[in-house]
Design goal:
Shape: rod-shaped
Low-confidence stretches: none
Radius of gyration: 25 Å
Number of domains: 1
CATH superfamily: Ribosomal protein L20, C-terminal domain
CATH topology: c-terminal domain of poly(a) binding protein
Helix content: over 70%
Number of helices: 5
Mean pLDDT: 96
Largest sheet: none
Amino acid sequence: MPRSVNAVASRARRKKVLKATRGYFGRGKNVWTVAKNKYEKGLQYAYRDRKAKKREFRALWIQRINAGARIHGVSYSQLMGMLKKAEIELNRKVLADLAMNHPEAFKAVVEKVK
């Protein structure tokens, strides 16, 4: 009796991976064994970088707040301490947006806590 393989499911699985690897460089887009490895590695990077993205944005916000705060004569750590003491609960994302796009509002916040 011939060996039964589910060719329909196998082809569908390969098509799914090859569709996901469109745009990859070289053989990574059309050779099954290479594309499969690149696809799996890409999923690993995506999982890792969903976590890293949060760290990178927080670091960016801190840099922007620090730059805005130093214009008004305080450092980032001093500003955050004064905000905590004044019980003003603005998160770093909002503070960074104020510092970048609404400097007059950011100045008002700094003056309020000074």
